[in-house]
Amino acid sequence: MPGTRKLGRPTDHRKAMLRGMVTYLFENGKIETTVTRAKEIRPIAEKMITLAKDPTLANKRALLSYITKEDAVYKLINETAPKYEDRKGGYIRIVRTGPRRGDAAEMAVIELI
């Protein structure tokens, strides 16, 4: 299936949800969500970390245009990105945690390594 997953939501809602989840990931370091959402979040978050590793003005503005909280951006630039300075990629880990009670959706924890 080419392209992105629709996640059962209209485009605007889906984009807002992904922005919120990426912001929350950088604030807290990990999120518990469904496997499908985690797989959608990973490439976005990895691109954000790659931008934060080279904190030019343009990159800071690009981060601020996607991540919804300024505190999360500053934490990403000043604390998170320097940890990955020697790493070329693979900053995020997805660990499956089993089915969710209620609807049996496959759950996962997405976290910064």
Q: What's the arrangement of secondary structure elements?
A:
Elements: H1 11-28, E1 30-34, H2 35-53, H3 57-66, H4 70-83, E2 92-99, E3 106-112
Antiparallel strand pairs: 1-3, 2-3
Helix pairs in contact: 1-2, 1-4, 2-4
Structure description:
There is one protein chain. The chain has 113 residues and is an alpha+beta fold. The chain has one domain: Alpha-Beta Complex (50s Ribosomal Protein L17, Chain: A). Helices cover 54% and strands 18% of the residues. It contains 4 helices and 3 strands. A 3-stranded antiparallel sheet has the order 1-3-2. A hairpin with a 6-residue loop joins strand 2 (92-99) and strand 3. The protein is globular. The mean pLDDT is 93.
Q: Which superfamily, in CATH terms, is the homologous superfamily? A: Ribosomal protein L17
CATH architecture: Alpha-Beta Complex
Low-pLDDT ranges: none
**Domain count:** 1
CATH class, please? Alpha Beta
* Rounded mean pLDDT score: 93
Beta content? 15-25%
Q: How many separate helices? A: 4
What is the helix content? 40-55%
Question: Largest sheet, described in full?
Answer: 3 strands, antiparallel
